[in-house]
Amino acid sequence: MLQKSLRIVHVRTVQHFLFNLSEFNFFRRSEGANYLFFGNPRPLAPLVAVPYVLLCEIIFFRGKRFFLKLKKRVVGILIVREKTETLCISSLAVAPEYRMLGTGKSILEYSVKLAARMGKPWLELSVLKRNTPARRLYEKAGFSLFEERKRSLRLRRSVGK
Fold first, then answer.
1. Beta strands, E only, 37-160
2. What is the pLDDT of residues 10-47, one digit of tens each?
3. 120, 159 in Cβ contact below 8 A?
4. Which CATH class is domain 2-158?
5. pLDDT per residue over 48-74, tens digit each?
6. What are the residue boundaries of the structural domains of the chain, listed by start?
7. What is the pTM (predicted TM-score) of this model?
8. What 3-state DSSP class applies to 95?
9. What is the arrangement of strands in the sheet containing 73-82, beginning at the earlier edge strand?
10. 99 close to 76: Cβ distance less than 8 angstroms
């Protein structure tokens, strides 16, 4: 039911940057959030979050950014970048209160359609090895191991025609 109310909107870099600055807690309770400590009540969180957000904007500079919205609320974020044969998901995040409701599945379905429209045979992403919920989601969505790294896995799935 929720999935039918969701819409994906392409956003400019500035919109994404301002959203990230104002919504530090978007990544809270996600695996790896302990590295960033988003959502913690520590007074120093903004001192770490602001440089982190700036760094991410530099890293994702060439990426296309999308918000997944429910009415006017951003419930998910997607950043993709184009490679020769692959569309890479650089960042995928779902607001904590919208996890386990099909939100991530909707983002992945959109990503597959986007890759097909771009003529890419592969959709690829990286996930931390210990992020079990995300790994389950990606496996259910048809992703399989492409490369194993020390702390993360690169997963890939065929886009199909």
1. 64-70, 73-82, 86-94, 122-128, 144-148, 152-158
2. 777 666 666 665 565 555 545 544 444 444 445 555 55
3. yes
4. alpha beta
5. 555 555 555 555 556 688 888 888 888
6. 2-158
7. 0.73
8. coil
9. 6-11, 64-70, 73-82, 86-94, 122-128, 152-158, 144-148
10. no
